[in-house]
Amino acid sequence: MALNITGDPAADKLLTEDPFALLVGMLLDQQVAMETAFAGPEKIRQRIGAIDPGTVAGYDPDAFTEAFKQTPAVHRFPGSMAERVQSLAQVVVDDWGGEAAAIWTQGDPDGAEILKRLKKLPGFGDQKARIFLALLGKQCGLEAPGWREASGAYGESGSHKSVADIVDAESLTKVRETKRTAKAAAKNG
Length: 189
Hints:
By secondary structure, the chain is mainly alpha-helical.
């Protein structure tokens, strides 16, 4: 299934075809619009010539940060996010043989195990890991037993809680409204 998250065909194609690019998009999804975050891997690919974990991990850190800063910026916090992306790439190289998809496929793991693996990644707390697991299950064909349960509310069928639920402009609007409502409720306390 082709992902439709960013509204940019090249960025969405990369996310669909490259598990590491999808993982990087999820990592970047904080304090910027979802479309901006998930378009980040394509910007990185264009600027440094690749988005594979080995290239990213081995790239000169200062030059990598400069690539993040080019207009339009990859993220509103280019320094810290460039560092996080390189840390993530290094973990994928060191722990998963350079294959991001191994995180959710190696050893035929169940949903709980995948969640545990995701939470060990740099920049992936509990919520981000659950959202990414839901994205894998809802849109990327992950069939690991228990993935819905492990993703919690983000795994619910028919929900519009996160990027895992975005398939078109209409669902993006619904996810934004759900997030806006949740933010207002939290603020009002």
